[in-house]
């Protein structure tokens, strides 16, 4: 199995990614760190603990991270309701707790303890990883790659915004990660807005007659409503797609480019800009997802919930 550290802000889609990571025999989660984003840090941490305990992953260490972006006031997402995980009537409060250390120190020790470099999956604003890079430079060679759900580049779809939430929340942290030399794969809205839960997908989810299947359907029902109201489409499984790439890297195709992030724009603040023609003459600092096999992604997800 591929050993990973997972940094997230659950969040309904982060929650489904946590489920996938735990259920897949191809993934071994050696730690979960939380950040603010979809809700305040206390809530995303509590949600991570509730989810992990509920799915039988209560032994995975959880460390709480940044309570606000590195250089900006806190912005909270709205898509997941006030608790960050509304619509979970069957999810009890957690009895497990965090490791009691800050996420960046936990990450540094976890990386240092690894024999070789390992993957970090990140599906929230990059505050924790930005801070890790500033505070614990010595462990950076232990990061094989960061697979991050964030950014938007091609805007192939008319329903896509110029700035993606995780990038918009903490663009300075993203800049630190982009400048760090750590290998970064960006799974942006271009591909995640193509893994949508619409009627045919619901029908499949509903067939999964387990307690876990029911909880996932509850999450999707809540999540979908807000998506449909604001964007007119079903729930996009942004974060699960990023996580799924640990299990099957061929689900998405990537291309390298130098990426800039707009730290000043009035309408494009937090926008990620790819220099595909290398007009700025700078070496690529990320790989950007541009094509996804949505059907294969959903088959993988159904199978993980079923077995
Ligand atoms: C990202 O923002 C959050 O709302 C989701 O959890 C996802 O990580 C999508 O833009
Ligand atoms: Ca997220």
Automatic annotation (TrEMBL):
Stretches assigned to the Inosine/uridine-preferring nucleoside hydrolase domain: 4-299
Top EC class of this enzyme: hydrolase
Presence of the UniProt keyword Nucleus in the record: no
Keywords: Glycosidase, Hydrolase
Gene Ontology cellular component terms for the protein in this record: cytosol
InterPro entries reported in the protein's UniProt record: I/U_nuclsd_hydro_CS, Inosine/uridine_hydrolase_dom, IUNH, Ribo_hydro-like
The EC number(s) this enzyme carries: 3.2.-.-, 3.2.2.1
Lineage: superkingdom: Bacteria
Spans traversing the lipid bilayer: none
Single biological process term from Gene Ontology: purine nucleoside catabolic process
GO molecular function: purine nucleosidase activity; uridine nucleosidase activity
PANTHER family from the UniProt entry: INOSINE-URIDINE PREFERRING NUCLEOSIDE HYDROLASE (PTHR12304), URIDINE NUCLEOSIDASE (PTHR12304:SF4)
Stated name of the protein: Purine nucleosidase/pyrimidine-specific ribonucleoside hydrolase
